[in-house]
């Protein structure tokens, strides 16, 4: 079992504090209409799942996920300014304001993006892993999947193909109990979701407490080592979403049973607290290291908000049409088109 | 009879509920239709009233939603299967176009497929490229299935009822932007409120130009018509309501009077509703044509997240006014 050093643990704490701060500020900004739109799915509550598993990767490995992607982006080291600017649809955003909350990506970090169609990114993950196999590299592709997405055709076809071609994918099912308003047991005949992958001959590393970064890291390390050498692996992280499905999910707050459940998760299974306890138990007094990370998170996110709000919006025809194709925009123009006749 | 203003979403809800009360073989299935009360609240209260047998939550399994509805319909039920949004119907495209639309044909009439696919459609509100489609013409491309696209509460009510009662498969597209829009609806239900399959409607009379539209395009056309009237131009607004079958007789009658036409749609411009209507007009109404046919559609681009450029890409009433002024 790999055992993380004190520095690693402190760095995980830094990442988790940053994610939590970023997400909670996003939530407030949305309520204040400083972030607009209809989709904003927060990673609060999921932090240990992403941080612990991605700690098992090296720089040349790949990551891909669904729309709940802010935390993944920050873990990979994407600039908080550019991520916040994307939330606000600014030109300085990581996708130039075109993608928004659900479509963060960073080629530089081998982060192949967040995708908004449930399950849609799974075959892409297999394709990215295929490139590594094809060229004889041992880089792996870490792929995050919602529990709800395991019921979608993309899941079954992609997992099966990864098995027959020995593709180095770590399929991580983030089982947060719900797909929108549907509990796992009402959506899936097999409620131990990792076992679905077993049906395709994929090696399962089982179910892990997704709130415990250390446990997540240990299992992920084994799975990554296995995938590098052999082929696909699956892990199921049991976790919870603190902010409902997404910000427009008003249903969530009005369901009493759900909020009692939420309170219990926050009291008993809070990922940042669990990590803090680990650190203190293993390394004793760490001075003000943790407080300093909390403080840094607040500063970084405040600066990101300032940066994003001061940034310009994309405007005009070129901003709208750019990157539809490579090269000049080969788009169709009617007389009523934007700027028609101006060139 | 008392008439009240109700939101289009409520009109659809009432139509669906009444059909479920009328015919026990009608049931609904889809993502979040039961316990969550419907993503767009169309099935609010249904689970409580009809129970799990007839109000069925599905997993996020669009391929199966599309195909299970076909099987159930072939076997004698009348499914109303909901796609949370029409974007996700793309995952079921094969079930829709190859089975719902063709099963009757390739077994030479042995089976019927009396189903309705309901889907929330349209763009705006920064839903971003993959969640920003108004792709009704794609479905209307295929023979074997009807496509209905109401523009207001009363039509939505009457069209959905007809769709459910019809023995052919129907894709029923509900514009998300129109869900909250209030429109008059009589309190009591009478058969005359049913809108026949494929019957269009003149929403405004005028002699100078014909505006042909459906769903949200009708609103933009009516707004444009009011603006044009201030400049002395009287536009006739034809709401086709169904993309299949297409009520071209109504368009031709109007065109014979106005000799000019602008086609208005929310969807993309290439291989589109506009292309189809324009082609039919020039083939069949050439002698009546006094000016080129114009089209107003969305820009030919995937939709961006950022609000300002998103709005730039969308059709609106002003674009309709501008197009009319080029030909009148
Ligand atoms: C193909 C498709 N169907 C439906 C949706 C609407 N939708 C978005 S997220 C979601 C729930 C997904 O749940 P899960 O996979 O558990 O991920 P989580 O949101 O819990 O992270 C649904 C139904 C969609 N985006 N794509
Ligand atoms: Mg989930």
For the terminal residues of chain B, how far apart are their CA atoms? 42 Å
- The strand order across the widest sheet of chain B is 3-2-4-5-7-6-12
By CATH reckoning, the class of chain A would read: Alpha Beta
In sequence order, what are the helices and strands of chain A, one letter per element? HHEHHEHEHEEEHHEHEHHHHH
Biggest beta-sheet profile of chain A? 6 strands, parallel
The number of helical elements of chain B comes to 13
Topology, please?
The complex is a heterodimer of chains A (343) and B (328).
Chain A: H1 6-31, H2 47-54, E1 62-66, H3 70-75, H4 80-87, E2 111-115, H5 121-134, E3 141-146, H6 153-164, E4 169-175, E5 178-179, E6 182-183, H7 184-187, H8 194-198, E7 203-209, H9 213-229, E8 233-238, H10 251-254, H11 256-268, H12 271-283, H13 289-310, H14 316-321
Parallel strand pairs in A: 1-2, 1-3, 3-4, 4-8, 7-8
Antiparallel strand pairs in A: 5-6
Chain B: E1 3-7, H1 8-22, E2 26-30, H2 46-50, E3 55-57, H3 62-74, E4 78-83, H4 86-89, H5 93-100, H6 103-106, E5 116-121, H7 136-140, E6 146-148, H8 153-165, E7 170-175, E8 182-186, E9 201-204, E10 209-213, H9 216-230, E11 235-239, E12 242-244, H10 248-258, E13 261-264, H11 273-284, E14 294-296, H12 307-313, H13 317-327
Helix pairs in contact in B: 1-8, 3-5, 9-13
């Amino acid at each position: 079992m790999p055992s993380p050093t004190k520095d690693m643990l402190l760095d995980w704490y830094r990442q988790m504090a940053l994610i939590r701060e970023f997400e909670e500020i996003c939530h407030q900004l949305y309520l204040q209409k400083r972030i607009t739109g209809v989709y904003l799915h927060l990673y609060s509550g999921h932090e240990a799942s992403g941080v612990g598993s991605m700690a098992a990767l090296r720089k040349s490995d790949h990551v891909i996920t669904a729309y709940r992607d802010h935390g993944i982006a920050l873990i990979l080291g994407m600039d908080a300014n550019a991520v916040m600017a994307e939330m606000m649809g600014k030109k300085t955003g990581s996708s130039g304001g075109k993608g928004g909350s659900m479509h963060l990506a960073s080629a530089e970090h081998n982060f192949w993006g967040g995708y908004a169609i449930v399950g849609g990114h799974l075959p892409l993950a297999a394709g990215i892993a295929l490139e590594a196999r094809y060229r004889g590299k041992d880089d792996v592709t870490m792929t995050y999947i919602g529990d709800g997405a395991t019921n979608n055709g993309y899941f079954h076809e992609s997992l099966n193909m990864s098995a027959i071609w020995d593709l180095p994918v770590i399929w991580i099912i983030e089982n947060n109990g719900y797909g929108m308003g549907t509990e796992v047991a009402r959506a899936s005949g097999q409620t131990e979701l990792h076992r679905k992958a077993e049906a395709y001959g994929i090696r399962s590393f089982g179910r892990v407490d997704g709130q415990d970064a250390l446990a997540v890291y240990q299992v992920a390390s084994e799975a990554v080592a296995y995938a590098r050498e052999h082929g696909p692996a699956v892990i199921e992280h049991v976790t919870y979403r603190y902010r409902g499905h997404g910000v427009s999910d008003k249903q969530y707050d009005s369901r009493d049973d759900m909020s009692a459940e939420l309170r219990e998760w926050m009291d008993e299974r809070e990922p940042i607290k669990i990590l803090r306890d680990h650190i203190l138990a293993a390394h004793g007094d760490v001075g003000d290291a943790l407080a300093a990370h909390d403080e840094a998170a607040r500063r970084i996110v405040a600066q990101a908000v300032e940066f994003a709000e001061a940034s310009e919006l994309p405007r005009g025809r070129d901003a709208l049409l750019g990157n539809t194709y490579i090269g000049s925009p080969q788009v169709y123009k009617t007389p009523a088109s934007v700027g028609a006749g101006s060139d | 009879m008392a008439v009240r203003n109700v939101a289009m979403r409520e009109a659809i809800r009432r139509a669906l509920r009444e059909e479920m009360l009328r015919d026990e073989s009608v049931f609904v299935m889809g993502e979040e239709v039961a316990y969550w009360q419907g993503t767009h609240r169309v099935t609010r209260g249904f689970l409580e009233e009809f129970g799990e047998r007839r109000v069925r939550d599905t997993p996020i399994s669009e391929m199966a939603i599309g195909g299970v509805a076909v099987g159930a319909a072939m076997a004698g039920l009348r499914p109303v299967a909901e796609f949370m949004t029409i974007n996700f119907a793309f995952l079921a495209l094969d079930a829709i176009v190859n089975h719902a639309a063709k099963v009757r044909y390739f077994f030479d009439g042995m089976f019927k497929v009396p189903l309705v696919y309901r889907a929330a459609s349209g763009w705006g509100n920064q839903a971003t490229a993959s969640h920003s489609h108004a792709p009704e013409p794609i479905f209307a491309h295929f023979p074997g299935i009807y496509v209905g696209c109401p523009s207001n509460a009363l039509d939505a009510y009457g069209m959905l009822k007809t769709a459910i009662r019809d023995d052919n498969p129907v894709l029923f597209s509900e514009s998300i932007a129109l869900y909250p829009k209030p429109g008059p609806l009589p309190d009591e239900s009478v058969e005359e409120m049913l809108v026949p399959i494929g019957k269009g409607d003149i929403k405004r009379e005028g002699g100078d130009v014909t505006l042909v539209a459906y769903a949200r395009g009708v609103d933009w056309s009516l707004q444009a018509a009011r603006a044009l009237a201030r400049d002395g131009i009287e536009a006739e607004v034809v709401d086709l309501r169904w993309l299949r079958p297409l009520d071209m007789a109504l368009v031709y009658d109007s065109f014979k009077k106005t000799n000019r036409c602008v086609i208005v749609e929310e969807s993309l411009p290439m291989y589109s509703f506009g292309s189809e209507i324009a082609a039919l007009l020039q083939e069949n109404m050439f002698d009546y044509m006094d000016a080129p046919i114009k089209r107003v559609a969305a820009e030919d681009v995937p939709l961006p997240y950022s609000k300002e450029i998103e709005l730039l890409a969308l059709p609106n009433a002003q674009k309709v006014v501008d197009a009319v002024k080029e030909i009148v």
